Amino acid sequence: MSPSPQNKPAPEVRNRGYLTAVLWVALLVLLAAPAFAGTPEEKGLAIATEADRRGDGYGDTSATMQMILRNRHGEESRREIRSKSLEVRTDGDKSMIVFDQPKDVAGTALLTFTHKSGDDDRWLYLPAVKRVKRIASSNKSGPFMGSEFAYEDLGSQEPEKYTYKHLRDETFDGKSAFVFERYPKDKDSGYTRQVIWMDQAEYRPLKIEYHDRKRSLLKTLTLADYNQYLGKYWRPGKLDMVNHQTGKSTTLLFRDYKFRNGFKDRDFDQSSLQSAR
User: Residue 121 and residue 137: Cα distance in Å, rounded?
Assistant: First the structure.
């Protein structure tokens, strides 16, 4: 039996319903997408802020890794390392790195407290002398344990510590990427600027170029082999840092990522450095 004309919605009612649905979809899309402001500086800050927001709420994490050091002739040495970190919602994160192998560095541990503003705190435990040494902020550009990673490369990279400028969008390794610069606010930084390629889909850093105090290209970090954890958090499986001025390089291979370990502040104090072995 055909519906009577009286039961059919009028054309203008049907159109209003369709337009309402379209408007709701458009609104949801706008709410889901980061709001990029107009200037290159504002857009760069918005990208960095969105990337940081997507990492919020992880709680804590641990991992093991292998560090591969290469000299300019390609000769390699390897180290086995454990790492753990604790999210601090009102400040930068806390992290600890402990060396397990080889024997001559076993038990060496680095504790880092990053901060949203001001100097980060760093302590290095040296088992050979059985003491904890504080790393001065003026030394943060120095190499960590003979690697191509500086002390300031380690720990969380808080957005508040930089100013930004969006440069362009381009494809990197088959992925659409934002390309933007960040400039350290800290006068003790070893860098004048860093150029970052950021995956547009998941806001994962893909490549970072580091320029030294003479404004020359110093190092390039490439991040690869990402996996997602807890349905939200992306972590790289491989980091390659190449020093263009010395010909040396360092690779970090990560494995056994674990989240929500139940770490507490007491797991990241200076006394825990000496018992980390």
Answer: 8
List, in order, residues 6 or more apart from 92 with CB less than 8 Å away.
Answer: 113, 114, 115, 116, 120, 155, 156, 158
Would 6 be classed as within a structural domain? no
Where residue 211 sits, what CATH number does that domain have? 2.50.20.10
In a domain, 18, yes or no: no
Render pLDDT for 28-80 as a digit per residue (tens, 0 to 9).
Answer: 433 344 545 589 999 999 999 999 999 999 999 999 999 999 999 999 999 99
Retrieve residue 167's tokens: 């440069």
Other CB atoms within a 10 A radius of the CB of residue 73 amount to: 7
Residue 13 lies in a domain: no
Domain ranges, residue 136: 50-274
Shortest CA distance to 55 belongs to which of 158, 154, 141?
158
Summary count for the chain: helices (H), strands (E): 3, 15
Whether 145 maps to a domain, the answer reads: yes
| Tokens, residue 80 | 């086995």
Q: How many domains does the chain have?
A: 1
Residue partners of 247: CB distance under 8 A and separation at least 6: 71, 72
Q: What is the DSSP string of 30-77?
A: HHHS----SSHHHHHHHHHHHHHHHTTT--EEEEEEEEEEE-TT--EE
